[in-house]
Structure to design on (842 residues):
């Protein structure tokens, strides 16, 4: 083949040189000027050497790739933040485009240490949809002012190395779990990456592997029957110290473990059941009795608190938090349980050597991943808030009972909430051989008011249950005083209360449609009315809205008698330097309280069932900070009862009481607990002449069984509420509520009355020995008739619906009772046929 006398190799070299040749007939892609230009080997783009960033001093040898064609460091996972390029243009310092955006990008399968700033134009070339999505959701004119470029410092700390492997080139890479990130975000890192915390994590991992091989089944260093007289040696250096009663609890748990007796640690809320449990398990580990594995099942909302206590009190424990997505849990099962990868659906039956000591998980995952978790032989099982096991019909009870466990420990501050059947199921879960016949148990203790039956019950429970109250073990702890504060309904509340009783749906529902009040549960609607009328659609429709879009604070306050009093109390409490917790069962009421606090310009935090995990703990930490400006903490009653320490607050307001008084006890125990330095004042708002007053009487019965069985005292046999009792609650106070009362009889709070109510040094405050006595014997009711200039204190049980006129009640609720009868007949196929309304406009 002829090449006209030219060597093919020379021709090819000349052609390549021509592509790099500085040409004058084209224009620079950056400045659009001509001159001496450099051509990209992968695209037709040409550039001046000085227009590049950084500028080139000489023409590169070999192939040259322009900035547009240069590959990204990896596959972009997400954009964290954006900024204006500090040099004006990401391609050229001298570019005419003075403002160019840059995106800080997190790469797929790479840690946050590898995030980089990428020019907008370059990221658009490779990930246009990601950029478009980011631009739709963020302000692209003003860059966000975020610390650490949108990366939390904790995300850059190697929590631990969980696996390693050899690369083809002989190098070793390590799979790293990062702090506060899920296991699905673990990344493979090289040893010499220059990450400060990685070297320490690798050393710990290698030492753990070597110690695993050297484990021997030596004799324990101590006898579990021997009591600790002083602080255990293994706690030295941790900066922690047990209270004497907590040390006693640890000794009792160790003895029970040695005797094989399953137990219930039933200390009152706030006495450190978590700390006692962690110390107990840690003592077995440090003294060679048992290295695990220990399974701890807790509510999802308390996981962060358990993690902190384990890290503080048991620093040598290898603890795994088994939560997260399906992908995260798969990473844990494959890499964290053993040093070898586990790729089977169950743990191998003969496997006895585990990498971890403690597996911390939630109730839900006990059921979801029962196939794998249930295949492990657990040395001990701990269930926090164990009243979840009060029914053997629950899925959680049935599945957890099938787990193989050598020892069981239940933690609950309320071991008995309603009846002896619940107690039996707890004991049945602990010891099925000993407690296996519910009918016989109920027959044996059919009348627990008899002294001999009480003694017999205590003999049975004694070996299995330890119960201490704050008043028994913390003599130096500041006391608490509780007041039931009776509050008048506002005129608007009285109007809506009557609408509910007379089933006036037209007056309750919004004229514009929207959500509808159906009055299926009159009791609940009456309780909503006692809180605030804005909980009903028609009231919201007429509410005054401020320019900020929130409810106008004056109208909002005047619409509820409770808010009128709360406003006066908060002003004085703020001036005195107190911090306040406000509890309500209704999250919509918390929304209204947020508008109220915004209008009053108080800084606050909030926790309810929708706020989980780290966000919950961050809110608690902000509130507990001594320098914090947060004055009020809003909590839903049940979400506020689990794993929350708010001892920096010394005033608790129960905005509306729970049907179950144990939930209210848990609520105010968030403040009255270890670490509290001030006397705790608890104010329970109760609307006068309403269902709330009669509810307080009924709630007393809920406490009687606990008071009788868990610790000796007076009491009686509780009974479930009958339909007649529920009717009595609804009827309570209605005649007095709607008659034209003399204004002198109304409860009114002026500044002096509120000051007396808040007085913590008042000699008239009667200090109680225990919560049970407060609840069962004599609620103190603060009632100030300041219109007459008289301060009164009395019992909230003065009203009785039996004295009301039957004719009055029949007239008021006749329609409601007839409607109930019609509903029953209709469900049986009887009664008048209801024609379906037809909408002819569709």
């Amino acid at each position: 083949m002829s090449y006209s006398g030219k060597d093919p190799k020379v021709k090819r070299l000349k052609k390549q040189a021509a592509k790099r040749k500085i040409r004058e007939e084209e224009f620079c892609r950056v400045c659009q000027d001509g001159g001496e230009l450099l051509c990209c080997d992968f695209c037709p783009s040409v550039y001046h050497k000085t227009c590049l960033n950084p500028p080139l001093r000489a023409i590169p040898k070999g192939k040259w790739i322009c900035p547009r064609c240069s590959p990204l460091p990896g596959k972009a996972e997400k954009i964290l933040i954006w900024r204006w390029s500090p040099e004006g243009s990401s391609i050229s310092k001298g570019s005419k485009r003075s403002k160019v955006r840059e995106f800080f990008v997190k790469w797929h399968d790479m840690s946050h240490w590898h995030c980089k700033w990428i020019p907008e134009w370059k990221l658009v070339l490779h990930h246009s949809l990601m950029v478009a999505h980011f631009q739709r959701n963020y302000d692209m004119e003003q860059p966000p002012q975020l610390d650490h470029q949108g990366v939390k410092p904790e995300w850059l700390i190697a929590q631990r190395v969980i696996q390693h492997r050899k690369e083809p080139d002989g190098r070793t890479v390590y799979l790293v779990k990062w702090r506060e990130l899920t296991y699905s975000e673990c990344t493979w890192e090289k040893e010499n990456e220059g990450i400060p915390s990685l070297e320490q994590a690798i050393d710990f991992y290698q030492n753990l592997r070597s110690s695993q091989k050297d484990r021997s089944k030596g004799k324990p260093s101590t006898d579990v029957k021997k009591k600790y007289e002083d602080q255990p040696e293994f706690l030295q250096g941790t900066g922690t110290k047990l209270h004497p009663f907590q040390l006693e609890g640890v000794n009792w748990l160790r003895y029970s473990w040695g005797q094989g007796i399953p137990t219930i640690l039933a200390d009152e809320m706030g006495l450190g059941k978590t700390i006692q449990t962690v110390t107990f398990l840690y003592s077995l580990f440090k003294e060679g009795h048992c290295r695990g594995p220990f399974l701890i099942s807790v509510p999802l909302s308390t996981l962060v608190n358990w993690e902190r206590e384990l890290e503080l009190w048991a620093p040598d424990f290898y603890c795994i938090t088994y939560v997260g997505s399906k992908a995260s849990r798969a990473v844990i099962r494959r890499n964290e349980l053993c040093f070898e990868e586990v790729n089977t659906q169950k743990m191998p039956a003969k496997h006895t050597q585990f990498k971890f000591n403690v597996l911390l998980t939630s109730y839900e995952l006990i059921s979801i991943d029962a196939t794998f978790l249930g295949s492990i032989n657990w040395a001990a099982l701990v269930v926090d808030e164990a009243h979840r096991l009060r029914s053997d019909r629950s899925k959680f009870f049935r599945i957890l009972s099938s787990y193989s466990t050598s020892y069981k420990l239940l933690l609950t501050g309320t071991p008995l909430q309603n009846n002896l059947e619940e107690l039996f199921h707890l004991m049945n879960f602990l010891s099925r051989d000993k407690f296996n016949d519910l009918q016989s148990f109920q027959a044996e203790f059919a009348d627990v008011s008899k002294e001999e039956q009480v003694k017999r019950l205590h003999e049975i429970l004694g070996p299995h249950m330890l119960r201490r109250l704050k008043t028994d073990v913390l003599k130096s702890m500041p006391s608490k005083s509780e007041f039931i504060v009776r509050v008048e309904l506002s005129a608007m509340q009285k109007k809506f209360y009557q609408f509910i009783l007379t089933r006036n749906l037209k007056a309750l529902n919004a004229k514009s449609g929207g959500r509808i009040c159906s009055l299926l549960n009159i009791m609940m609607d009456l309780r909503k009315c006692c809180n605030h009328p804005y909980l009903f659609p028609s009231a919201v429709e007429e509410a005054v809205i401020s320019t900020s879009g929130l409810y106008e604070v004056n109208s909002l306050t005047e619409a509820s008698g409770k808010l009128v009093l709360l406003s006066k109390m908060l002003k004085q409490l703020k001036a005195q330097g107190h911090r306040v917790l406000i509890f309500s069962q209704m999250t919509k009421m918390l929304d209204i309280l947020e508008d109220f606090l915004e209008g009053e310009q108080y800084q606050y935090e909030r926790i309810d069932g929708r706020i989980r995990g780290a966000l919950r703990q961050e809110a608690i930490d902000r509130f507990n900070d001594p320098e914090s400006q947060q004055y009020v903490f809003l909590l839903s009653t049940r979400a506020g009862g689990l794993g929350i320490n708010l001892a920096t607050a010394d005033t608790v307001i129960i905005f509306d009481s729970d049907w179950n008084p144990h939930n209210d006890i848990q609520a105010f125990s968030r403040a009255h607990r270890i670490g509290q330095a001030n006397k705790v004042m608890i104010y329970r708002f109760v609307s006068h002449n309403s269902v709330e007053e009669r509810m307080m009487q009924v709630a007393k019965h809920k406490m009687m069984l606990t008071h009788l069985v868990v610790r000796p005292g007076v009491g009686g046999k509780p009974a479930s509420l009958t339909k007649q009792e529920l009717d009595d609650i609804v009827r309570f106070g209605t005649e007095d509520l709607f008659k034209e009362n003399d204004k002198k009889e109304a409860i009114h709070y002026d500044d002096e009355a509120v000051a007396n109510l808040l007085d913590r040094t008042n000699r008239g405050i009667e200090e109680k020995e225990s919560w049970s006595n407060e609840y069962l014997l004599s609620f103190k009711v603060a009632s100030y008739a300041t219109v007459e200039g008289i301060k009164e204190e009395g019992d909230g049980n003065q009203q009785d619906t039996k004295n009301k006129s039957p004719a009055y009640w029949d007239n008021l609720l006749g329609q409601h009772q007839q409607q109930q009868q019609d509903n029953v007949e209709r469900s049986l196929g009887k009664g008048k046929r209801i024609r379906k309304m037809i909408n002819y406009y569709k």
